């Protein structure tokens, strides 16, 4: 669908009005965006300069939105009502990224901020007219932090040692492959090693890993054991989505299918054994507290769903068997963050000590931080980062099949 802008003039009640209108062109028909055009009439019909400014800005945002909402929403001329605070925020981020990567001076931060405010004005107008918008009137999530992010370069050094353990000083470390396998091989129950592998592959918190289903429903209804997750072309999917709620907030992130393949290969036989115990266990619970049998994938030896507290206890026990071991389960998030950034960059780019907003934005969405600056700055001390091109796709697969297979074999 394309968005087309044109100027119309007409008389009404002996007065002449001229203002922009927007139309949606699906290749066969052109349809007026009626409510948007009423807004443009009420807001900008007194000035051709204003109507052009408002309409051009809405057109650019709508074109961005059409690329970032699902297919069903795109098919309706009311697609713009599907916009969220995150869409407005990320639209600004994409403009800043493109400008900074091309080392341009315009549009300025002020212009981008003002244009986003115009989008929010349409939202406020829509709410006053009882239209079903998804954006909360008093929310600040849509506001982009230009002070933190509007830059194209930062000078922060790095050290990468010969074992590929990334460091900035003796106090800042990222888990090495040896550290990972050492922890996983010392868990008393292999389920925790498989859960740790999933955390490494996604950046999930403990509570997010515990929620992972055997067979998903709703937004996760595509989640199945790896052998059942094939495309019609018989090519294995590279990543798949997982919608999770952590710390009270929901987000959709990418799951590394190479890691999922290794997890399923090693854990499924254990799962089926434990599923029998799980059925017996949930039968003892009050009916209103019984989870759906397919909603839980990670079960301990008793057939009980693994909880974050159980992960913590199991990890402390595993650590007690390794002299001087400093890592905990949660450090998988730091490993993921570093690996994600490094996997998307060449050595030359790392050595350029160059900062890029795109990496930060993608990482924010994946690991679920509202303010990624503190986390990102920490890992900038590990390596200076930049994306190769604006068009480069983020690689959530992190590393090779052999790596994930080695991890899960350690757990058995």
Describe what you observe in this structure.
This protein has 412 residues and is α+β, with helices and mostly antiparallel strands. The protein folds into 2 domains: 2-149, no CATH class; 160-331 and 399-411, hpI Integrase, Chain A (Orthogonal Bundle), CATH 1.10.443. It contains 16 helices and 8 strands. It has helices at residues 34-44, 48-66, 71-74, 85-101, 109-128, 146-149, 177-185, 190-202, 206-210, 257-283, 308-320, 332-343, 347-351, 357-367, 373-380, 401-411, and strands at residues 2-12, 15-25, 30-32, 159-160, 166-169, 172-173, 239-246, 249-256. The chain has a 3-stranded antiparallel beta sheet. It has a 3-stranded antiparallel beta sheet with strand order 4-5-6, with no helix packed on it. Strands 7-8 form a two-stranded antiparallel sheet. Strand 5 (166-169) and strand 6 form a beta hairpin. Helix 4 runs antiparallel to helix 5. The longest helix is centred in the middle third of the chain and has 27 residues, at 257-283. It is elongated, with a radius of gyration of 25 Å. 33% of the residues are buried. Residues 152-172 and 383-393 have low confidence and may be disordered.
Please provide a brief summary of the model:
By secondary structure, this protein is of the alpha+beta class. It has 16 helices and eight strands. About 8% of the residues have low confidence.
| Overall CATH class of the largest domain | Mainly Alpha
**Cα shape:** elongated
Assembly of the depicted chains: single chain
Q: Name the beta content range.
A: 5-15%
CATH architecture field of the largest domain: Orthogonal Bundle
CATH topology of the largest domain: hpI Integrase, Chain A
Based on secondary structure, the structural category is alpha+beta
How many strands, which pairing sense, and closed or not: the largest β-sheet?
3 strands, antiparallel
Tally the helices: 16
Overall number of strands? 8
* Low-pLDDT sequence parts: 152-172, 383-393
Distance between the termini: 52 Å
User: Which series of helices and strands comes N to C?
Assistant: EEEHHHHHHEEEHHHEEHHHHHHH
Kindly report the spatial arrangement of strands forming the biggest sheet.
Answer: 1-2-3
């Amino acid at each position: 669908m394309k968005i087309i802008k044109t100027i119309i003039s007409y008389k009404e009640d002996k007065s002449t009005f001229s203002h922009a209108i927007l139309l949606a062109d699906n290749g066969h028909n052109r349809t007026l965006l009626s409510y948007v055009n009423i807004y443009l009439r009420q807001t900008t019909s007194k000035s051709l300069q204003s109507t052009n400014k408002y309409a051009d800005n809405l057109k650019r945002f709508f074109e961005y939105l059409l690329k970032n909402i699902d297919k069903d929403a795109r098919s309706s001329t009311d697609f713009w009502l599907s916009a969220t605070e995150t869409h407005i925020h990320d639209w600004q981020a994409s403009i800043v990224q493109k400008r900074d990567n091309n080392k341009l001076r315009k549009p300025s931060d002020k212009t981008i901020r003002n244009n986003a405010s115009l989008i929010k004005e349409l939202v406020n107008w829509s709410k006053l007219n009882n239209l079903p918008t998804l954006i909360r009137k008093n929310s600040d999530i849509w506001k982009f932090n230009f002070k933190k992010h509007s830059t194209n370069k930062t000078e922060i050094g790095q050290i990468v040692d010969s074992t590929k353990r990334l460091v900035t000083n003796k106090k800042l470390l990222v888990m090495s492959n040896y550290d990972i396998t050492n922890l996983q091989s010392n868990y008393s129950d292999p389920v925790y090693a498989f859960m740790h592998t999933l955390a490494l592959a996604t950046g999930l918190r403990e509570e997010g890993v515990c929620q992972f289903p055997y067979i998903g429903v709703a937004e996760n209804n595509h989640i199945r054991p790896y052998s059942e997750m094939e495309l019609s072309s018989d090519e294995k999917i590279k990543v798949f989505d997982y919608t999770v709620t952590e710390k009270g907030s929901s987000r959709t992130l990418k799951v590394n299918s190479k890691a999922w393949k290794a997890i399923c290969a090693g854990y499924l036989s254990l799962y089926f054994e434990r599923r029998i115990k799980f059925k017996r266990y949930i039968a003892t619970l009050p009916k209103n507290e019984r989870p759906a049998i397919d909603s839980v994938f990670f079960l301990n030896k008793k057939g009980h769903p693994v909880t974050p507290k159980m992960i913590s206890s199991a990890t402390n026990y595993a650590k007690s068997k390794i002299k001087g071991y400093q890592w905990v389960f949660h450090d998988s998030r730091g490993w993921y963050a570093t690996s994600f950034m490094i996997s998307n960059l060449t050595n030359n780019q790392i050595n350029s000590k160059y900062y890029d907003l795109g990496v930060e934005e993608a990482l924010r969405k994946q690991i679920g931080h509202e303010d990624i600056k503190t986390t990102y700055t920490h890992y900038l001390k590990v390596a200076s980062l930049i994306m190769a091109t604006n068009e480069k796709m983020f690689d959530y697969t992190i590393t090779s099949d052999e790596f994930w297979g080695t991890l899960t074999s350690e757990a058995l």
